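Entry 12.
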Amino acid sequence: MKLHRTLSLVLLVLLGAAVYAGEASAQCCCGGVHLSVIGEDKKPITPVVTALISVDGHAEPIAARLIETKTSESGDETIRVSADCYGFKLMEITVAHQGGQMVLRLRDLPFGELGEIHFDPVTFRPSTSEIDFKGKAKGHCKETSDQFGCVIAAERWQKVSDKAETALKPPPPKTQPTN
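Predicted 3D structure (tokens):
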């Protein structure tokens, strides 16, 4: 009877540790792209943002799970696009403001390397720009913001077109089953 109780207690402790470890890793397995957009006058603007993510380059792109506006301690507004734990072949962020669009592409960031990536403010210009991480985020950081992220200089964006051109097409809307 005592052995049975001891084994039950050990199993309960192991189960609790496994649940806690799963929750702890789930909290760490998140990442996002933080960017702020400024106008030609260097003043912050609040654009409309959409984002698509292509995980492996072959599958249909998925919409970013969460796009949110955040205000920093200094009062600056940033937009955070959540990428969860994906790692991705391509993340495409479309920024719309006053009838114009700008497309920002992030290429080839492997699973587990995303963390929180903060970009220096980007000047809104209708165009397409990209950064190819070539499988590594840390080599593109000008500084590390914490152990799970980095800050990337605005100069890292390479303009690829004077037009806003999207490579990813939104997934078709899901149809409701008919009865």
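Annotation: Residues 62 and 176 are 18 Å apart (CA to CA). The radius of gyration is 21 Å.
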